[in-house]
Amino acid sequence: MPSYKLLPEFVPAIMTTAERDAKWDSPPNALTIYNSDVGRYQVFSGIRWTSIPQYVTVAATTAPGVGDDTDDGYVIGDRWLDVTADEEYVCLDVTAGAAVWKQTTRDDAGDLTYTPAVATDWDGDTDPGDMDDALDQLAERIDDTEALEHAQAHTAASHSDQGATGAELETLTDTSDADALHDHGNHGVTHNAVHGISKHTGHANWKALYTDGSGDEQELALGADNTFLRSAGASNAPVFETLYSVHTYVFVPDAAFDADVATGDQQGIVHHSGDNNETVIAWGIDEPTVSTGAALKIQLEFGNTDDLDTVASWTEIDIDDLPVGTKSVQFAVGVVTNSTITANRLIRMNVDQVGSTIAGANASVWLRVKRPLVT
């Protein structure tokens, strides 16, 4: 199972650094507070207190531009919601006059570039494919189909808008052209075999129905287990796809609070991947006390088993640097060494290099992945 899960409506204690240190000599692991001195949530890792990165979400009616930069108070990792175009962006560079904002929602081709939040409900648009719209359309199709079925048996004389009298309909034979006298377009009639709404043809088993650009009814094979129907736009056939949730792992070095970061495998926090393969979305490094003289180099990797005592080999997820003098960096999606983390594996961080003049202190690393939603 995952190492932890954020819970809603959780309000930690608010205190200063002095109040925190006076209250606990040996804090329990995972204890969380809000430190009013630094304006950050802090978690005790079992070795030291670590500040959790906090980012800003901006709601606007336009897309961000190069001028939405550090001079306006933005930092790397901030999010921008264009509520007019229903698009989301994440800030990757805050250089004055040359800010870079990366769109994280689906492009016109329907490709997923980034999933920024946990899929908690249909209409929060945590799913970039507007799955709620597709489900609404499917429900409407089912309602329309049911409305076209007769609730009870009836005689020919009870039909309305039929273009013929009941007596005339009673004289029809099985080879008569019923459409000339009886309008099948006004309701669905149960004949000797079940047929489509607009065509008198039998349907195959276990199919979803939709109408194409010509208004003709089409069949769509049901998707694989745990896939959901998604709209592909007003002029394209719907598709069955897997839905994902998003999870963030947080790592900190083994060094004590304010102590220099040291190189080597960090054993203080080792995470456990979920029950299904996970896909890396992005990761980043934060270091309040920056390294100087050389960059802080971090490597993330997962083991070949979920037992720390029996791991025989480790597979690199990615390795990259926090540039000298920089406090925070996020690495763009799609450039990691290995974007797939096997299910039920241990995940750890390694410190491959620290600053040569100032090693750096209080670093933290986060790794964001998407997981298939399984019922």
User: What percent of the residues sit in helical stretches (DSSP H or I)?
Assistant: under 10%
- Record field, number of beta strands: 21
Classified by CATH, the class of the domain at 245-372 is: Mainly Beta
CATH architecture of the domain at 245-372: Sandwich
Mean pLDDT: 78
Q: What is Rg? A: 29 Å
Number of helices: 3
Order of helices and strands: EHEEEEEEEHHEEEEEEEEEEEEE
- How would you name the CATH homologous superfamily of the domain at 245-372? Nucleoplasmin core domain
Proportion of β residues? 25-35%
- What general form does the structure show? globular
Secondary-structure-based class equals: mainly beta
Distance from N terminus to C terminus (CA atoms, Å) equals 15 Å
Uncertain runs are 112-122, 178-191
Main sheet makeup: 5 strands, antiparallel
* CATH topological fold name of the domain at 245-372: Jelly Rolls
Tell me about this structure.
- The protein has 375 residues and is mainly beta.
- It has a domain at 245-372: Nucleoplasmin core domain (Jelly Rolls, Sandwich).
- Helices cover 8% and strands 31% of the residues.
- It is built from 3 helices and 21 strands.
- The strands form 6 sheets. Strands 13, 15, 18, 19 and 21 form a 5-stranded antiparallel beta sheet that branches.
- A hairpin with a 6-residue loop joins β7 and β8.
- The longest helix is centred in the middle third of the chain and has 17 residues, at 131-147.
- It starts with 12 loop residues before the first strand and ends with a strand.
- 23% of the residues are buried.
- The model is unreliable at 112-122 and 178-191 (pLDDT under 50).
